[in-house]
Every structure is written in C-alpha cells, then in structure tokens.
Design brief:
184 residues; Rna Polymerase Sigma Factor, Chain: A; Arc Repressor Mutant, subunit A; 2 domains; 0% strand
C-alpha cells in the first residue's frame, strides 16, 4: 500500500485508533497527540507492500502509545528527582529566623566583647577560624593546656550569659571522651 493509501486508511480508522489510544494513554488529548505523530511517521514510511495495513496502523498506534507512556514515566521520575534535589521552602530561612539569628549573633558578640582578650581570641581562632589548638597556643604564647582552659572558661561564660540557650549549641567540638576538649 502506498503512503497516500496508509494516510487515507488512517483517516478512515481515525475514530477506532483514537479509542484505542485514549484507552491506552488514559487521555483523549494524549491520544490526539499520538495520532498526530502517526500521521507524520506515515509520511516517512518507506514505500512497499504492507500485508495487513489496518493491523500495521493499530500496531503502530500501540507502539507509539507504549513509547509515550514510558517517556512520560521517565520524565516524571526525572522531574521528581530534580524536585527532591532542590531545597524546599522550609530550607530557606524566613525573615523571622533571620531576625532571630541576627539577634543571637549580637548577643554572642556582646558576650565576646566582655571576655578577656586572650579568651576571646582563643574562642574566635578555634570556632570561627577553625585553627588547631596547637596553632592557637603558639599565637598566644601559651601551652595547649592553657588554650583548653581558656576555651572551657569561654564556653562556660557564653552558656551562662546566653540565658535560655542550650549548652549543646555553645559546647565545644567533642572528639573522644565526654568532657574533654579536642586536641590536635
């Protein structure tokens, strides 16, 4: 059957093909889209004899419907994975959280300003600049044990002055035994 013969047969079988496609895809709009794809594909079909042209059209419709369902499933899976990788609305701080964080930062800075210079320097070098205690000891000209004592007293002062804050939020990094400060 020639290309124009398949196209004419497609038009003659259109209602039956639409019913088949709508049943397979679950949507009349999707069925129309697949039928449109069939029309374009028929223009590219190599000419030659087709034993059963009606069966050929229905097989083509079934195959295109299957391809469409698989493609849709892959797209939805990919979109879901993309959405899952994106931060949600709750992951962004809202204005209230920003204000609370700014207020807490001001309170911490006020407590730091009240501390002796060495204690403040030790805390900032250790917590903010993430320097090892040995490097802090060398900078301040004291022993590592002296740095540990400064950090312990500094944390205690922060916890006491930041009334209402939990000790866990201001506690030093723990590496090993509970109650000991980290070493290099």
């Amino acid at each position: 059957m020639s290309e124009s013969g398949l196209t004419a047969l497609l038009l003659a079988q259109r209602p039956a093909l639409l019913r088949l496609l709508a049943a397979r895809l679950g949507s009349p709009d999707e069925a129309e889209d697949v039928l449109q794809d069939m029309w374009f594909r028929l223009e590219r079909v190599p000419s030659g004899p087709i034993a059963d042209p009606v069966a050929y059209l229905f097989r083509m419709a079934t195959n295109l419907a299957s391809d469409r369902r698989l493609s849709t499933a892959r797209r939805e899976k990919r979109d879901d994975a993309w959405k899952d990788s994106m931060p949600g609305d709750n992951d962004y701080p809202d204005s209230e959280r920003q204000l609370m964080a700014a207020d807490e930062l001001r309170r911490v800075e006020a407590v730091l300003d009240e501390m002796p210079e060495r204690m403040r320097s030790a805390l900032i070098l250790f917590r903010v600049e993430e320097q090892p205690q040995r490097a802090i000891a060398e900078k301040l000209g004291i022993t590592v044990s002296g740095v540990e004592k400064l950090l312990r007293r500094g944390y205690r002062q922060l916890v006491e002055k930041m009334s209402g804050e939990s000790a866990d939020r201001c506690a030093p990094h723990r590496h090993g035994d509970e109650g000991s400060l980290p070493h290099d």
